[in-house]
Design brief:
By secondary structure, the protein is an alpha/beta fold. The chain has four helices and seven strands; from the N terminus they run αβαβαββαβββ. The chain folds into two domains: 30 residues; 124 residues, Glutaredoxin (3-Layer(aba) Sandwich). The chain has a seven-stranded mixed β-sheet with strand order 2-1-3-4-5-6-7, sandwiched between helices.
Length: 156
């Protein structure tokens, strides 16, 4: 009887530790850290390809089709020099244009004091802008804030 009671107590303690570890692990990732809201024109095919890239890299994506993307960019505070075709919101950050998923993950992990990151324009070879038979062009992803000049975040 004592042996059975001892096994039950040890099992319950082990289960308790397992539950505490699971709770701690889940709380270490901010809620919604991979939930991405993408504003895009309904007619933009490359934006749809970027959405697929993000989904394939583990992001949960919600798309909102918008006719006036300029209004969204002004409302969100995207600097004109950083503009591209689509604008995304993830947590407290903006992601403008064809930014690779790895750069978004890096931003979320490092949590820098910025407004967001952007791949201005539509660089050939960036996610969603791949063209078969065409060599990818080098491009940069910039970090931006409302008050400072954009800074290089990544080179591709």
């Amino acid at each position: 009887m004592d042996s059975l009671r001892k096994k039950i107590i040890i099992s319950l303690l082990g289960l308790g530790l397992l539950l505490i570890a699971a709770w701690w692990f889940m709380s270490a990732t901010p809620a919604g850290a991979t939930d991405l809201l993408v504003y895009k024109s309904p007619s933009c095919g490359c934006c749809g390809e970027w959405v697929k890239h993000m989904e394939q890299n583990g992001f949960r994506v919600q798309v909102r089709h918008v006719e006036d993307m300029t209004a969204i960019k002004r409302q969100q505070g995207v600097p004109p020099a950083m503009e591209s075709c689509h604008t995304a919101v993830i947590g407290d950050y903006l992601v403008e244009g064809h930014v690779p998923a790895a750069d978004v993950r890096r931003m979320l992990a490092e949590h820098p004091p910025i407004q967001g990151i952007a791949a201005p324009g539509m660089p050939t070879g960036s996610p969603g802008m791949e063209v078969p038979g065409q060599k990818p062009e080098p491009y940069q992803v910039f970090s931006f804030t409302r008050d400072e000049a954009p800074k290089v975040f990544a080179n591709h």
